[in-house]
Amino acid sequence: MARTDSTRRWYLFDYGNVISTAPTPEDWDRLAEATGVDRLQDRGSSYWRHRVAYDAGSLTSDEYWSLVQGRRVSPARSAWFDVLDAHQWSHLNVEVLDVLEDLEARGERLAVLSNMPAAMVLQFAGAPWTRLVGHSFFSSSLRLVKPAPAIFEHVLADLQAAPGQVTFVDDSPANVAAARSLGIHGLLFDPSSDLSRVLAQGLAVSPASRD
């Protein structure tokens, strides 16, 4: 007997470092050469210091890349930086894609929740991986960023799902903790683990017992 929507789970996936792999050193080198700013991958770099505001839609592309470079950047140049940035986050994790395809084939409901700037959202529009998910939620569109509880509350309302109906997979402990605080079944992504097995085993464990 086919399951009704009320009995089907939602599987909510992060994008960066989950569906996609991390940028390679060569990617960072290309961006450093283009911007003239070294070590952008370091967590204290100008790339990361202003990233939350960019992801939240509080900065335009020109404003963000001007802060990264430390001087005013033209629209044409900032657009090129956005292309390079999207490229370095476009390397897909084949194992995770296999899991997404398997879940879709089983009739499960899939969605993505990602902290992502508007320029990157546009770059990825129509990408093959987007066809696997029924709903996509991006921080720049919502003007909210993970791990703010409000972004998860928005997702639950939009999906018309109870927290216990949602399994959330993310590589950030803070994001997973925020999801669990609302009753969502949060799983911390480990690229070395068998994600299919983790998902299957995790459903037998309540979110509260995993905190």
TrEMBL record:
SUPFAM superfamilies: HAD-like. Gene3D superfamilies: HAD superfamily/HAD-like, Putative phosphatase, domain 2. It holds the Pfam family Hydrolase. NCBIfam families: HAD-SF-IA-v3. This is HAD family phosphatase. It comes from Arthrobacter pityocampae. The lineage of its organism: Bacteria, Bacillati, Actinomycetota, Actinomycetes, Micrococcales.
